[in-house]
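Aim 2 progress update. The chain analyzed this quarter is reproduced below.
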Amino acid sequence: MSDYEQTFFERAADRKGGNLILMDALLKTPIKMRKRSSQIFLNSYFDTSIEKLPDKVILHIFSYLSHLEICRMAMVCRRWRTIAYDTKLWKNVSLRPEVSGLHVGSLEQLLQMISVRFSASLRYIELPIELITHTVLHELASKCPNLTHMLLDFSTAMQLHDFSEMQAFPAKLRYMCICLSEVIFMEGFMRKIYNFINGLEVLHLIGTYEKGEEEEEEIYEVINVHKLKSATPNLRVINLYGINFIDDSHIDAFSSNCIQLECLAVNYCSKVTGSTLKPLLARSKQLKCLLMNGTDLKSEYVMQAEWDKCSVQELDISGTDLSTECLVDLLTRIPTLRFLSAGQINGFNDSVLKAWAESGSPKSLVALDIDSSDNISDEALGRFITRYGAQLQACVLSGMTHITDQLWMTILPILVNVKIIVMGTTERLIGNIHVDQLMDTIGSSCPALERLELRWDPENLRFSDKSQKAIDMLRVKCLKLRCLVLSDGRYYETVKANFERADRTTVVRTTTSCRVSAYHVLSNYNDLIFN
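Predicted structure tokens:
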């Protein structure tokens, strides 16, 4: 859209009143649709009224707005209210105020919304604890036959509603996420839905790990995993995140019943030691992804597992206390490892990297994350990247003070296929990072780059008055770049202003609100996302 058209729209919005958000949404639409919509709007403007816009054009423009903004549009006039409440705009709905900004005042209002606004179009819904009642679930089961994804947030619950009269529940769910409470036992609710969830393929149980506890309290098993596994035999993806009561017996329970299991994540379940890894790998022949970040893995249990006979291709063992011997045994025995996250492990050193490289096992590797691995030297890393860097799609070498821009300048020309890069540390360095040369090299060497994070302290970044040229190189050469994360400071402001002038306003972000992860290259990444 030309500057003239944009100025015209802004003036038109001022004159017409109430159209400003609509114009803002129009500016967000794809170029092909934008040209068509702008021409229609120009024609309609000269006919003196925005009312000349066809309903389908306004509906398409509304589709680029959040539900909160759509609700505001509904207050403009009756026609816009009718369009705003079109079921096509309400396929994926979050009713959690802290997420979407939508607050439903009463159950009666929600029941009316389900019947009139959601109906057969609804595919995904998020419900907070105050809206999870048997009447709401009955209405969803009866009025929303195409509902396949559901999130139930019990995390703030101090008391459950009465589910004794619940006789129906959405029966076509393929994805369900349950945010658990620390103190509310879920069995009264769960036994009412067991008969309706046997078609589930993706299950998320989210604990309270991120809340952080100042002092240890008594741990309650608030959901019966052994009964749940019997009701969900078709699970492909299981994510048990930060649940303080999950242990190896629960992993064994799922593996004994879920023969189609492809991905198991038990990140931050501190009671998992790996004692049931051997039967898990023996039973789950299709298991390709195993994520165990922040668990209490024991080296002897890991070494007992038959890694050379398993199908595991993606492994996360970050933040564990595995020994050097165990790491060498593990990495040299997995034949087709494509993803490895092994950061924050004291036992991961040069000898592990050398033995792994010499075994030839990294021949399929596309993602390497060894964040905060202080016992690996830059020489060993340089040799490994020189040998396998050309095949990497994700490279995370952050949190290490000895890995500076000098090593990156050496290995960046090798990372020709990389999509994700994370570099730098938040610790203050003695030397400085010459970021202009770094940006220029990234732009000329990594055309496929999609996500980049520089974690260095702003005080350590040195750039010149001509840094715009290096930033231009990055922006013009890396056209797929969708996320560039920097520490807040002068350089962040410079880069942000450069991208905003090129109308790429959402690319540059700060480390306080965004982090880049190698998880984006996981084969089950979309299934592992939870809100």
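The radius of gyration is 26 Å. The longest helix spans residues 31-46. These observations will guide the mutagenesis experiments scheduled for the next reporting period.
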